[in-house]
């Protein structure tokens, strides 16, 4: 079963018709949303003052470095801007408050009609403005400046040095005037700042040259006095020789240390040698040769010892030769160790002598240079200060030339295209706004429909019935009230209702218009379309079982006022039209209605029989409709659940089955009391009535689970009160064509 429902859900996901039904169900919500969006867009488009955009084009070239430039010193070049910070800085300056305020003052925008304050006629606001002016300094161009900043836009043209400056205003002439003035004032302010910067640089350099000249004179005087005090005038040849001798001794000492380390390593290696544990390679060639001969004779002795006995002459000869070679090898090792020790001691003595000489020479050099180092330090400072002074003098000359040329040189920022007076407004674009508003309203309305459908947690269609509770749908009963018919009777029925009622029959139309109750509609008007819907449910019940249709049926609902009693009555009429003997049992002992519908006395009935006050023949009453009998509830008892759950109730139903073809019980709502669960456990089939668009999904699921826990056999559900014009069920899958409501004979 789970696989079946999963397949159904997959089919539903790709069912475009289902999406259309969701939108069609709330079509007026979507239409209202579209109309609202289009209306507001239209009001905005036609009420908003048109705005015009004027655009000027500037070219910002990189500033040429004339002084104190690292790039000019090192001849650094690259394509495009060498430093994007300059370009970005100019863009920010183009939008600076000071520049725009300068433009506003030049154009006298304080008195321009576009920027004149609107008089709202509220005197109370004047007092608040005066208090504000007392707290903050009065700046009449503050608001105008920020208004211009908010209406202008700076756009760099990609891969060029061009910048587009645009300004938007309700006055086309003002738009072009402001854009051109901003560009002109920006160029003028840049030239002024550049001239000021060169003048400041020149003054700074003059001050620095004067200061360095004073410092240089003091440092030269200090160097002269220090030299006279220490007797340092120049470096002699003797001082140069001493330094060179110290360097030679240091070099010789380093070589002696390396030689001593090698000699010591050789000595330690030979000292550790053992005849029986000689390494594979030895630095001494004599020892290496003796080791090779000794190893050969020892291997030969070991091989022969496996064949001959020690007393064998050849073995005795080999052993004597092996002992001789061993003694010779030990003597050679001893001689090598002694020779290495002698070399090591000689080299060590040499190193110690050089070390003493090095320490003595180091003291002499240190004593000689102690005064020269300080003197040389002062001398280097003097030379550096002279170089800096020469460099500043050169730069100061260049700056003077630059400041004189700035007055005649063209600025590196130029106005390429002036802003023209715009002829057409850029906004509002009425046609585009209306089209976009319609599209936004269309998609927004559809989204709103889906959102409302998602938030709607009621059972709406047969798929919900089958998906939520896994029970089949037996049929749908369209929405109907007497007021519905009476209103249609005045204005004219729909084609479907008119055609189903019998065509152009004024008498039938008049009877339908006078209808006040719908419980017996399929009896009073068997040709009406709803009557045929009840017969469709009857057919579903008859075909629900392969062997024999259920005889004892309980009809209930999840919550009150879902149409269960109306369904019971009309289903009884539908079965009676098959010439079946039908008994209606009003098992709702808390809120009975059957006696009112059939206009019977309720003095005796089900409660009277179950309490033993009357017999079954007295309790059951014949109705005015052929083949229909009614067992009313009788007086309301204090303990309805105990009466329905009694053995007498079970025996009564078994006896009644012998006399009637179909017995239908009208049970209370499942979620209200426990009575319907009791009756569902003793009948052959139970039918749930669900009010479309009203019954909550949770209530429906809980009601089905309650009945299942009570061991009830749920035959299916009847979807009551389906509003076809809202749900959109017009396909043959759910509802047939109106032609089916005209009888075949006609």
Q: Quaternary state, please?
A: single chain
Range of helix content: 55-70%
Outline type: flat
Strand order of the largest sheet: 5-12-11-6-10-7-9-8
Mean pLDDT: 76
**Highest-level CATH class of the largest domain:** Alpha Beta
Number of domains: 3
Number of alpha- plus pi-helical segments: 28
Plain-language structure description:
It is a single chain. The protein is of the alpha/beta class and 746 residues long. The chain has 3 domains: 27-199, Bacterial polysaccharide co-polymerase-like; 237-405, Orthogonal Bundle (Helix Hairpins), CATH 1.10.287; 459-479 and 543-731, P-loop containing nucleotide triphosphate hydrolases (Rossmann fold, 3-Layer(aba) Sandwich), CATH 3.40.50.300. Helix content is 60%, strand content 10%. It is built from 28 helices and 12 strands. The strands form 2 sheets. The protein has an 8-stranded mixed β-sheet, with helices on both faces. A 4-stranded antiparallel β-sheet has the order 2-3-1-4. Strand 11 (685-691), helix 27 (697-709) and strand 12 form a beta-alpha-beta unit. The longest helix is centred in the middle third of the chain and has 93 residues, at 313-405. The model is unreliable at 1-12, 66-79, 120-124, 486-504 and 730-746 (pLDDT under 50).
């Amino acid at each position: 079963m789970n696989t079946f429902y999963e397949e159904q859900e997959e089919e539903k996901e790709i069912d475009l018709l289902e999406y259309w039904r969701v939108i069609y169900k709330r079509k007026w919500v979507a239409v209202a949303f579209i109309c609202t969006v289009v209306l507001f867009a239209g009001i905005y488009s036609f009420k908003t003052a048109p705005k015009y955009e004027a655009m000027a084009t500037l070219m910002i070239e990189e500033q040429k470095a004339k002084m104190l430039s690292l790039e000019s010193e090192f001849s650094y070049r690259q394509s495009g801007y060498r430093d994007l910070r300059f370009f970005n800085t100019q863009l920010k300056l183009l939008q600076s408050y000071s520049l725009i305020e300068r433009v506003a003052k030049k154009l006298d925008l304080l008195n321009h009609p576009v920027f004149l304050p609107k008089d709202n006629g509220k005197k109370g606001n004047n007092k608040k403005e005066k208090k504000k002016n007392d707290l903050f300094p009065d700046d009449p161009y503050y608001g105008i400046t920020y208004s211009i900043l908010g209406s202008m836009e700076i756009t760099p043209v990609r891969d060029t040095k061009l910048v587009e400056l645009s300004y938007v205003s309700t006055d086309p002439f003002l738009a072009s005037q402001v854009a051109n003035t901003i560009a002109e004032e920006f160029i003028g302010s840049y030239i002024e700042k550049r001239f000021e910067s060169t003048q400041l640089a020149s003054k700074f350099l003059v001050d620095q040259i004067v200061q360095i000249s004073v410092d240089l004179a003091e440092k030269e005087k200090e160097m002269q006095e220090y030299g006279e005090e220490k007797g340092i005038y120049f470096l002699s040849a003797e001082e140069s020789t001493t330094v060179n001798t110290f360097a030679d001794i240091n070099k010789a000492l380093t070589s002696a240390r390396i030689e001593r380390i090698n000699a010591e390593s050789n000595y330690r290696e030979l000292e550790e040698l053992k005849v029986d544990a000689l390494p594979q390679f030895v630095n001494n060639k004599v020892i290496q040769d003796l080791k090779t001969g000794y190893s050969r004779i020892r291997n030969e002795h070991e091989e022969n010892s496996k064949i001959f006995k020690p007393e064998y002459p050849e073995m005795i000869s080999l052993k004597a030769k092996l002992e001789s070679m061993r003694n010779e090898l030990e003597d050679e090792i001893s001689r090598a160790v002694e020779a290495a020790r002698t070399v090591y001691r000689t080299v060590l003595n040499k190193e110690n002598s050089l070390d003493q000489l090095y320490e003595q020479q180091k003291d002499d050099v240190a004593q000689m240079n102690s005064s020269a180092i300080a003197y040389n330090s002062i001398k280097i400072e003097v030379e550096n200060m002279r170089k800096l002074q020469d460099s500043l003098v050169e730069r100061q000359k260049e700056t003077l030339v630059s400041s004189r040329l700035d007055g005649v040189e063209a600025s590196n920022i130029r106005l390429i295209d002036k802003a023209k007076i715009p002829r057409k407004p850029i906004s509002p674009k009425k046609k585009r706004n209306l089209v976009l508003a319609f599209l936004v309203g269309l998609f927004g309305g559809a989204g709103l429909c889906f959102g409302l459908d998602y938030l709607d947690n009621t059972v709406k269609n047969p798929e919900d019935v089958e998906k939520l509770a896994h029970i089949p749908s037996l049929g749908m009963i369209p929405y109907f009230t007497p007021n519905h018919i009476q209103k249609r009777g005045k204005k004219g029925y729909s084609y479907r209702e008119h055609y189903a009622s019998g065509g152009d029959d004024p008498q039938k139309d008049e009877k339908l218009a006078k209808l006040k109750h719908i419980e017996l509609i399929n009896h009073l008007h068997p040709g009406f379309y709803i009557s045929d819907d009840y017969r469709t449910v009857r057919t579903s019940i008859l075909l629900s079982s392969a062997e024999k249709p259920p005889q004892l049926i309980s009809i209930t609902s999840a919550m009150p006022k879902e149409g269960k009693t109306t369904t019971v009555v009309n289903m009884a009429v539908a079965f009676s039209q098959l010439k079946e003997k039908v008994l209606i049992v009003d098992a709702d002992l808390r809120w009975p209605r059957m006696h009112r519908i059939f206009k019977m006395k309720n003095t005796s009935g089900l409660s009277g029989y179950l309490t033993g006050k009357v017999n079954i023949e007295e309790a059951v009453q014949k109705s005015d409709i052929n083949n229909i009998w009614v067992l009313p509830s009788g007086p309301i008892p204090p303990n309805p659940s105990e009466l329905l759950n009694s053995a007498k109730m079970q025996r009564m139903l078994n006896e009644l089955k012998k006399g009637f073809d179909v017995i239908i019980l009208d049970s209370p709502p499942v979620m209200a009391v426990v009575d319907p669960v009791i009756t569902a456990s003793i009948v052959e089939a139970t039918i749930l009535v669900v009010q479309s668009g009203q019954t909550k999904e949770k209530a429906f699921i809980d009601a089905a689970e309650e009945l299942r826990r009570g061991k009830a056999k749920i035959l299916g559900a009847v979807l009551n009160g389906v509003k076809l014009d809202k749900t959109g069920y017009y396909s043959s899958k759910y509802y047939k064509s109106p032609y089916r409501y005209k009888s075949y004979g006609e």
